[in-house]
Design brief:
The chain is an alpha/beta fold and 706 residues long. It has five domains: 86 residues, mini-chromosome maintenance (MCM) complex, chain A, domain 1; 150 residues, Beta Barrel (OB fold (Dihydrolipoamide Acetyltransferase, E2P)), CATH 2.40.50; 208 residues, Rossmann fold (3-Layer(aba) Sandwich); 88 residues, Orthogonal Bundle (Helicase, Ruva Protein, domain 3); 68 residues, Arc Repressor Mutant, subunit A (Orthogonal Bundle). A five-stranded mixed β-barrel has the order 4-8-9-11-10. A five-stranded parallel sheet has the order 15-18-21-14-22. Strand 28 and strand 29 form a beta hairpin. The chain is globular, with a radius of gyration of 32 Å. The termini are far apart.
């Protein structure tokens, strides 16, 4: 161990030799910048023993480094600046996951790779408290090392000029004016999804950020938090116990700014990825590699392959943003493998997360302000699944059963890809730049082929929310002898290929989930060859980091022509709209995703045609050739909207001539002229009254417009 008195001189030499220019820049940026970042690698090059001592005795070095930096600035004529030295780039052997933290790690400097799940508001904390003795007026300063307890004087010490009275004989008042207050913030870090072992809940740790580090992070941010672990005894029945909770006092923060940088791709793997991209059947290969254990669903799997790659998110000069992520909704009967698809996609996608709309978390799918007992009941901002899946994929099962708080914010989360929170003094905007793959079930167990009832009326989802999805698949379980036989053979064959879980746990059989082909290609009975999971993840990460395609002119023309021609179609109602501008943007995203699969910087005519074919297919599968976007928004088919409009016009006309009231019998008579029978008219009137568009002011014999 180096001598404590020698440390400030060592730090002064280090700053003078390697960081003099950085200190000068810091002085120019003050007070917007209040920290000097010092790389551990530079310290190692300066003095290896000195660097090792920092890891073992960090608190001494934090004090000495700050002292040296402030003296350096004072000598340069900046006597009013009190910046901090922040050590970053710790060696690999000092990096931990949250679940790896042990008692031996307490007191040393280490780094934790994690994602921020919860933050409190920034609050002032007394760093050094000044107390005044009421009896004699003597002042004394008490350092406050514990952020959860205010330490008061025991007596007015005579050695410092006090009266010597004990606490029971006098009273000590806190002098806030002369006390030193600092900014403080509680936050919670959680293990990264890729660090978690299957079936184990993610570990979390409460952290404290102080001074200029407070307010630097938002929930959902991926960080490397450098700091020192400390402990606090758990209390039960007002008494301390021998069991301790671990906390992290954050010293410096390194944001993981590079998208998907957690996925390491070697040079050999990069060459392998480029070689695969040159294959003429790469798109089919990717399609076959999506959930190969699930039979069929070719078009669905094609869309999921495109979703993994996504389009290009673009920022405009006016401050607006066009999302690149592709949202897909799977609506289907029970037992059609929706949940299996979601599970698979969440594991294969970089930064993938699987959750349920029935989430027990207060944050749910989006985000929430909650009171945290770990932070003395302070209001904290907790991230939901979409925030934690930022720059990845959120697979949401039971999407139709989400809580009410999520329903109100899902529109912003999916389209603008952010969530705005204003509650309990916390005002924040959190990013949700992720693709959404959702699954929903019908209200009545199975989807009905009833022409009068569109699919949007058969699920518990608001039509405007449904319209946010780029692709919507309706998966029904219909009896087909030939298809049923193929599915049955596939399921049985797939089951027999598996390995006994008990034998795997005992170690007597290899784990099939951890064994993959070195070439990145695996054999499959149905598809011949498929890409391994590991290669798919790396392929996607490489493509998203390096490929940002734009549409060539032929591709643009193909998409525009499809849009214009589709707009010409006339539906069942005069307010029918065959396609909207939102669908036009979805086509562009699909074409860009297709180009990314080929690692092409240009989306060609072929990519645009693939996007058009897929869009035309799912629209026809969903609603037939007469696709009506208005049905998505209203949840009502054109014929129903026409009847409602006709009844409203009849009531309005009769009411105008009848003192504001229309006789019900007269309404029925007029409705027959529009080929609307009495029973249908009664049903339409009931629904209009339920929705508040029409009133029955006196019994059931009269009507008026609300």
């Amino acid at each position: 161990m180096l001598q404590e008195f020698d440390l400030p001189a060592r730090w002064t030499s280090l700053i003078q030799d390697h960081f003099a220019e950085s200190v000068h820049n810091l002085a120019q940026m003050w007070p917007d910048e209040q920290s000097l970042e010092v790389s551990y690698r530079v310290i190692e090059g300066f003095d290896h023993e000195f660097a090792h001592d920092i890891v073992q005795h960090p608190e001494l070095h934090f004090h000495a480094s700050n002292q040296a930096l402030r003296q350096f600035l004072m000598d340069a004529g900046h006597s009013t600046m009190y910046p901090f030295v922040r050590i970053i780039h710790l060696p690999v052997d000092q990096v931990r996951t949250v679940s790896q933290l042990r008692a031996d790690d307490i007191g040393i400097m280490l780094a934790i790779d994690a994602v921020t799940t919860k933050i409190s508001g920034v609050r002032p904390r007394i760093y050094a408290a000044t107390f005044e003795c009421v009896a004699c007026g003597h002042s004394m300063v008490i350092n406050q090392p514990n952020e959860q307890e205010l330490i008061e004087p025991i007596e007015c010490q005579q050695l410092d000029g006090g009266c010597g009275r004990a606490k029971r004989q006098t009273r000590f008042e806190l002098n806030q004016k002369d006390s030193i207050l600092i900014n403080s913030q509680f936050m919670e870090l959680q293990e990264l999804p890729e660090q978690m072992k299957g079936g184990i809940q993610p570990e979390r740790i409460t952290c404290i950020a102080e001074h200029d580090l407070a307010g630097k992070l938002n929930p959902g941010d991926r960080v490397k938090a450098n700091g020192v672990l400390f402990i606090r005894s758990q209390r039960k029945g007002g008494k301390d116990t021998p069991v301790f909770d671990i906390f992290l006092r954050i010293h410096s923060i390194e944001r993981q700014n590079i998208p998907l940088e957690e996925i390491v791709i070697t040079e050999d793997e990069e060459l392998e990825i480029k070689e695969f991209a040159r294959r003429p059947d790469i798109f089919e290969l990717f399609t076959n590699s999506i959930a190969p254990s699930i039979f069929g669903m070719n078009y669905v799997k094609q869309s999921l392959a495109l979703q993994l790659f996504g389009g290009v998110a673009r920022l405009n000069s006016d401050g607006t943003r066009n999302r690149g992520d592709i949202h897909i909704l799977l609506m289907g009967d029970p037992g059609v493998a929706k949940s299996q698809l979601l599970n698979y996609m969440s594991t294969i996608s970089p930064r993938g997360r699987f959750t349920s709309g029935q989430s027990a978390s207060a944050a749910g799918l989006t985000a929430a302000a909650v009171q945290d007992p770990a932070a003395d009941g302070r209001w904290t901002l907790e991230a939901g699944a979409l925030v934690l899946a930022d720059l990845g994929l959120a697979a949401i099962d039971e999407f139709d059963k989400m809580n009410e708080g999520d329903r109100s914010s899902m529109h912003e989360a999916m389209e603008q890809q952010k969530i705005s929170i204003s509650k309990a003094g916390i005002n924040a905007s959190l990013r949700t730049r992720c693709a959404v793959l959702a699954a929903a079930n019908p209200k009545n167990g199975r989807f009905e082929d009833v022409s009068e009832v569109p699919f949007t009326a058969q699920i518990n989802l608001a039509p405007p929310l449904v319209s946010r999805f780029d692709i919507i698949w309706l998966l029904t379980d219909k009896s087909d002898q030939e298809k049923d036989a193929k599915i049955a053979h596939h399921i049985i064959s797939n089951r027999l290929q598996g390995v006994s879980e008990l034998l795997v746990n005992e170690g007597s059989a290899p784990d099939p989930t951890k064994t993959s082909s070195r070439s990145g290609v695996e054999k499959n009975d149905e598809h011949g060859e498929v890409l391994s999971r590991d290669l798919i993840r790396k392929y996607i990460a490489y493509s998203k980091r390096t490929v940002h395609p734009h549409l060539e002119q032929d591709a643009r023309d193909a998409i525009v022509n499809f849009y214009v021609e589709t707009r010409k179609q006339i539906g069942d109602s005069n307010d029918s709209v065959a396609i909207t501008a939102r669908s036009l943007e979805a086509l562009a995203r699909l074409a860009e995703a297709s180009a990314r699969i080929r690692l092409s910087q240009v989306a060609t005519l072929e990519d645009a045609e693939r996007a058009v074919r897929m869009t035309r297919f799912w629209r026809e599968e969903l609603m037939g050739g007469n696709f009506d976007e208005t049905t998505l928004v209203t949840g009502k088919k054109g014929t129903v909207r026409n009847r409602e409009k006709a009844i409203m016009e009849i009531v309005a006309s009769l009411a105008a001539n009848g003192g504001g009231i229309a006789q019900l019998l007269e309404v029925f008579n007029e409705a027959e002229r529009y080929d609307i029978d009495r029973a249908t008219a009664e049903d339409v009137i009931d629904k209009l009254c339920q929705h508040g568009r029409m009133l029955r002011p006196s019994g059931y014999d009269t009507l008026q417009i609300a």
